[in-house]
Design a protein that fits this description.
Order of helices and strands: EEEEHEEEHHEEEEHHHHHH
Domain Protein kinase: 24-265
Shape: globular
InterPro entries: Kinase-like_dom_sf (IPR011009), Prot_kinase_dom (IPR000719)
Structural class: alpha+beta
Strand content: 15-25%
Number of domains: 2
Helix content: 25-40%
Largest sheet: 6 strands, antiparallel
CATH architecture of the largest domain: Orthogonal Bundle
Protein name: Serine/threonine-protein kinase
Keywords: Kinase, Transferase
Radius of gyration: 27 Å
Number of helices: 9
Strand order of the largest sheet: 1-2-3-4-6-5
GO molecular function: ATP binding; protein kinase activity
Length: 301
């Protein structure tokens, strides 16, 4: 059976809320996930938003309640705006949330300076710490689910709550390359540690690409590759921290956040042009020699 919520709605279509009477105009598709489609929308009063359409009311209600639980001025999740139903065949169950700015982490990672990478990873872990306090784990930690807004001091936002799972429950939605169980370093159960391992795996595989045949490898082969990949990390502070997280030595987000903050940044080149300094030094020396010669000559006259 075809999931009707996965059939994309054309831009320009108006979705009318059955219970609120509000209207939202579809501006375009932002993304398609395992449990729904997200559209950029404008409400009838001009308020921009992102509409998540799901197949069932239960998933909509779960994600909406989560956004309500974690909302706040500096929440990493989009602020909830409205939950409703409609008579549109491909948008029967939906909610609307804040439309956040920024680009997916995998699109900006390689261009980030060391200081920005450190800030972004700290913000991700701080956001997870807030989520864990509510009794949930993010679970589907991947670069595509994380937006980075360089115009807002590298603010980090989580844009897909579909994989969020109560702590202690089996993980329902995950991405293999950031799934600790796939690499054989933890079990596939929602926990703070599962999320932190996901962050470490995500950061590592953004820098060092896994082999093309990783999905056909045994767990032993994957773990061997993982150990080699960590040794390719240039900065010893990050290398040591990745090893601790993947060994299970760091199990809560606040501890990891503090550890990230304590990692020293590499010294950046000061940009000094030594050839220019040498040239100006030589010129100054020549000028001084000339002045001394003229002074001596004038006294002799």
């Amino acid at each position: 059976m075809t999931d009707k919520s996965q059939v994309q709605i054309p831009s320009g279509t108006w979705i009318v809320g059955k219970w609120t009477g509000r209207r939202w105009r579809i501006r375009g598709c932002l993304g398609v996930g395992a449990n729904g489609v997200v559209y950029a929308v404008d409400r009838d009063d001009g308020l921009p938003g992102a509409m998540k359409v799901c197949e069932g009311a239960g998933q909509v209600a779960f994600e909406w309640s989560l956004l309500e639980r974690v909302k706040g001025a500096r929440s990493s999740f989009p602020a909830p705006q409205q939950i409703d139903d409609s008579d549109h065949p491909h948008a029967q169950y939906f909610y609307v949330m804040e439309r956040v700015g920024g680009k997916p982490l995998d699109k900006v990672w390689l261009g980030l300076r060391p200081a920005d990478r450190k800030r972004v990873l700290h913000e991700i872990v701080a956001g997870l710490a807030h989520l864990h306090e509510t009794g949930y784990a993010f679970c589907d930690v991947k670069a595509q689910n994380i937006l980075v807004d360089s115009s807002d001091d590298m603010r980090v936002r989580f844009v897909d709550a579909g994989g969020v799972t109560p702590l202690g429950k089996a993980v329902r939605q995950f991405t293999p390359t950031s799934d600790g169980a796939f690499w054989g370093v933890c079990e596939r159960r929602a926990s703070a540690q599962y999320d932190l391992i996901g962050v470490a795996l995500m950061a590592l595989t953004l820098d060092v690409k896994p082999p093309a045949n990783v999905f056909s490898q045994s767990q032993e082969q994957r773990r061997a590759w993982l150990n080699k990949a960590i040794l390719q990390v240039a900065e010893p502070g990050w290398r040591s921290l990745l090893q601790k997280v993947l060994r299970g030595s760091v199990t809560d987000a606040p501890t990891l956040a503090r550890a990230i903050q304590s990692i020293p940044l590499p010294k950046e080149p000061d940009g000094t042009d030594w050839s220019a300094k040498l040239m100006w030094g030589s010129l100054a020396s020549a000028t001084l020699s000339t002045a001394c010669a003229w002074a001596l000559y004038l006294r002799l006259i």
